[in-house]
Design a protein that fits this description.
about 10% strand; alpha+beta; about 400 residues; elongated; five-stranded mixed beta sheet
Length: about 400
């Protein structure tokens, strides 16, 4: 068993509370070569501090847990002197040249930079930061435990599907941190278990608008702002996501023998490293006329009234869309109802699911999961189109069974 250094000043809470309150840590106690444990006396409960030599004549220090000055230790966030020693050994695991351990907040920053490099949606990271308590944000990733992550997940005040979207981002950030520092970050089970996805969170979408409602909504959007009206009409016609609409360029509006079309870029949704491709989506001539604009082929096709490009986040379109819904006197709905309505419109038109999925940058499985209730609701009408009709038995082939009267 490893030697457990003693410190009459730190190992006893009564002695610790006699120390003066100050920012400078008290009593550095060597735990291992180049690694020391200290205590910072605060007005409230004190903090355990680790100091690790960096191998280049300097060192780094980090507060990593609360001392059991006023409450019993729980082995996670509140530690005794002896438990703090064990944590310090885990925290300093690896070579002294490996540097300061990364915190959860720093892991999110690194993941955000990684998303930017891959042209991903960095707004997802902001969602996690908004719901992350300061104590958890400041904790080193290498010290995360399943229990505290599960408590955080279960305490999120949002719908289960939103919980899963939020926890997936934190798991991705922790996984990236582990790949960059595999020697010290060995607790991947902490977020695999503590941030496990909630089950049965996928329900069929009911935000389906009739064609007449969509037309009314588009007209209301044009009344509010012609630029937003064009943005809304393009979304309703193609069923594209906002992240795809904002990537459309002037050169993506094309014409062939069958009529006008948009070379719609795919989204980043799906998996890391996904290659962006452009696929033809047919549009009516009326929309093509409104979309036609002068400019270089790489200029944004859809711009706001001030000439600036639209953003993929909901910040740009959420409020004007809410105003358009109110102006059209419709029940409250979201911008994504245009996409859902486009998919259902094609389903009811009898378009093969493979073609619908390809045009909407999704999969047949996802369509079946998301719209299964709606598809089943209309299955009777669809199946009747394939029923055998018109068959009549010949009168000469009718046989009366014995014992029965005709």
């Amino acid at each position: 068993m490893a030697r457990r250094p003693r410190s009459s000043t730190l190992e006893n809470r009564t002695n610790r509370l006699k120390l003066p309150v100050q920012k400078k840590p008290h009593c550095f106690t060597t735990i291992a070569p180049g690694v020391a444990l200290a205590y910072r006396r605060c007005k409230g409960a004190g903090r355990w501090i680790v100091r690790v030599a960096d191998g280049r004549g300097s060192n780094w220090t980090k507060a990593f847990a609360i001392a059991d000055d006023h409450e019993e230790a729980n082995g996670e966030s509140v530690l005794t002197f002896w438990q703090a020693q064990d944590k310090v050994r885990k925290l300093a695991r690896g070579t002294v040249e490996s540097g300061k351990p990364i915190t959860v907040a720093e892991a999110l920053t690194d993941y955000e930079s990684d998303l930017k490099g891959r042209d991903g949606l960095t707004g997802n990271v902001s969602r996690v930061r908004h719901h992350l308590p300061p104590a958890l944000a400041a904790k080193p990733v290498s010290l995360l435990e399943a229990k505290e992550l599960k408590r955080w997940r279960d305490g999120l005040d949002m719908k289960p599907a939103s919980v899963n979207r939020t926890t997936r981002i934190l798991k991705a950030a922790c996984n990236l941190a582990q790949k960059l520092d595999p020697t010290r970050i060995t607790n991947t089970h902490a977020w695999k278990v503590g941030l496990a996805s909630l089950r049965d969170t996928h329900t069929a979408r009911n935000a389906i608008l009739s064609d007449e409602q969509v037309r009314t909504l588009i007209a209301a959007a044009y009344d509010i702002d012609p630029a937003f009206g064009l943005y809304t009409e393009t979304a309703a016609t193609t069923g594209a996501r906002p992240s795809q609409l904002v990537k459309l360029e002037v050169g993506d509006l094309q014409h062939n023998g069958d009529g006008p079309r948009l070379m719609m870029p795919s989204s980043r949704k799906g998996h890391a490293g996904k290659v962006i491709v452009r696929k033809p989506v047919p549009i009516p001539a009326s929309l093509a006329t409104r979309l036609k604009k002068a400019g270089a082929p790489t200029d944004p096709l859809l711009t706001k009234s001030d000439g600036l490009p639209w953003s993929a986040t909901s910040a740009d379109h959420r409020r004007p869309f809410e105003a358009a819904v109110a102006h059209a006197k419709l029940k409250p709905t979201t911008f994504y109802s245009l996409r859902h309505s486009s998919i259902v419109r094609q389903i009811l038109a009898g378009t093969p699911l493979r073609i619908i999925a390809d045009a909407h940058d999704t999969s047949t499985r996802q369509i079946e999961i998301t719209y299964s209730a709606f598809i089943s609701h209309h299955a009777d009408a669809v199946l009747r189109k394939g029923l055998l009709t018109g068959a009549q038995p010949s009168a000469g082939n009718v046989v009366t069974l014995s014992g029965r009267r005709s």
